[in-house]
Amino acid sequence: MSANEEYKNRNRGILTERDRRFLLGELDEDLSENAEYQKRYQIRQRIRDSMFDFWIINQHLSAKDAGMIWAETDDWIYQAEQDRLRGDAPPYQKKPFLAKCWRDLLAFFVYSQISTGVSEAEELVEWVIEQGVAKGIRRRFFENLQMYQHIEPELDWGVGDRYRLRDFLEYVEKQMPKSREESETYLLDLFKKGYLQRSHVEYLYQSKFE
Prior knowledge:
- The protein is an all-alpha fold and 210 residues long.
- The protein has helices spanning 17-23, 33-60, 63-69, 71-86, 97-114, 119-145, 165-175, 180-192, 198-209.
- Helix 8 packs antiparallel against helix 9.
- The chain starts with 16 loop residues before the first helix and ends with a helix.
């Protein structure tokens, strides 16, 4: 069950195509322990350096340029609005790929911080999300409407019940469709949404069909 090709086959971003295949375990060559260490170091540094660029991007990239980045999400929003107005909106609309990428960027930051279990880390995550929302909304009112908007967003963690992993995987396995193709689609959808890790997907698929 290979990763979505949209993640791999595209122009260079933070990662080169070789970097992507390295992280996905799909390199055609075996790296020495030192070469692997150097590759991971290079990837970490590029990610870190790219984060600093966003201060400049947010402050100095024009609204017109910023808007052109989001053509895919703008098209999705327009279509979703038209579906709603016609009464044709599906209950669970497939979100645009670019929006999923930004969701995963946020997930990457949240996971890397709160994995320590320290309360100050959770407070930092709350501050980043809440202030990011507030800063973006205030900028919109400043530049588009010539107004000041007071806003105090609050992050609701919405933490629910916890389940043993084994029990949860058993539940997912019972929900899997009977066909291989439908089960693969079902499991990959849960993986992309963060409900399962790749090892869980492979385990469940092999348990049912192999």
